[in-house]
Design goal:
homodimer, about 20% helix, alpha/beta, six-stranded mixed β-barrel, Barwin-like endoglucanases
Chain lengths: ~230, ~230
């Protein structure tokens, strides 16, 4: 092996180490098992829409995994151009704008072209009709398939070498193992460590209650028009 | 940089190159774009079950992407302990044993615990009731969620550095990009290059008609009890 080859190899290795350093997490950072939860279809309502549908404030039933979030007693019907989905959960507290999160399977039932968007990014999304036994509300926008994401504290993010709004690849160890890309990291002191995927993603990865995710890579950016607020 | 470090780096690089050679396909073999097709729920019938349900042979409607396979005019109803799915496609030609391929979403509707299995591996799988307007058949086994797989010719396999029954990882470039692991390679001179995933996997990966897959790795074996015939 002559000196030129040695030099070339070293240059290549050094380049690779330098280039990979900020994105490779596997060796340099702890690989932490992230609990994976399935998000079933649900609705977030503005105060105004909650009143239009139910005549008053929503009724708290139980806390959800993320502190402050709760399931409401009230249920709502989604009415699309092709089909209807009944008995859809409402999550509180109320938000500035109503938002409806469904799966691609649901979108086929409703007959809507529904884009994958991160929560809050509802400009340009389709509308949908919400109905209760007391009222009806036509949303002009707010129907999305929620982008997969991970809730974590800033401390957990530091341990995993990631930051708020980073897009990461996560290995899911279900019956149908897969690496899901473009997973958005969200950090907040009040978050509980949890990855959220929808039912299609869960079924496609053979999810069960014991499944966990591990971050295996970090993307520089997404090219898929996902905006993160 | 002293000699010891140089030597260590070279050893590491050489080890890695040697270790990766048999499994890394990205550099050494052609990365071929594989068309990805969605498999909707469907039934394969034995001749006997076809007669019990329809009183005679099945009616050919149109060829499918794999040569020799065809869609039948007849449709069947699946009856599970919890729910019913109507208008399910039947694919010909008839097989030695009837087999029903559904998604995890369908399994929830029917109320059956349905394992992921490769086609033909139906020992120990649940049964299901099939009904038409002329007859009813109770299958004692044969209800599966089909394992994802790729059809290719032996020549294409050679180009991609894989063999029949290999399990590979495939990058899917949908709206929700992902690497699906445990994808089974099946080779036959008559096959047309195509990867088959089910609707849950397609929805979870943001599938559309232009999506393609690329083999990015090869597994030594699966630990998930998948048997390949």
């Amino acid at each position: 092996m002559n000196e030129k080859i040695v030099e070339d190899i070293i240059n290549k290795v050094m380049n690779q180490l330098v280039n990979e350093a900020p994105t490779s997490l596997v060796d340099s950072k702890e690989s932490i098992a992230i609990p994976v939860e399935l998000s079933a279809r649900h609705v977030h309502l503005s105060e105004q829409d909650a009143i239009a549908l139910f005549g008053g404030p929503l009724t708290h039933v139980r806390e959800l995994s993320q502190p402050g979030q709760f399931l409401c007693k009230e249920r709502v019907r989604l009415i699309g151009p092709k089909g209807v989905i009944d008995n859809v959960a409402i999550l509180g507290p109320s938000r500035d704008f109503s938002q409806v999160e469904i799966s691609k399977t649901d979108a086929r039932i409703l007959g809507t072209e529904t884009p994958v968007k991160h929560s809050g990014d509802i400009d340009g999304t389709p509308g949908i009709i919400l109905a209760s036994h007391k009222g009806i509300v036509g949303l002009e926008k707010g129907l999305i398939v929620a982008g997969r994401h991970i809730h974590m504290t800033p401390g957990e993010a530091l341990k995993m070498g990631v930051s708020d709004k980073d897009l990461v690849s996560v290995h899911i160890d279900g019956d149908r193992p897969a690496i899901l890309e473009d997973v958005c990291v969200r950090t907040n002191e009040n978050f509980r460590l949890s990855m959220h995927i929808d039912l299609d993603e869960g079924n496609g990865a053979g999810w069960n209650k014991n499944v966990s995710g591990r971050i295996v890579g970090k993307h520089k950016e997404t090219s898929r028009g996902l905006h993160i607020h």
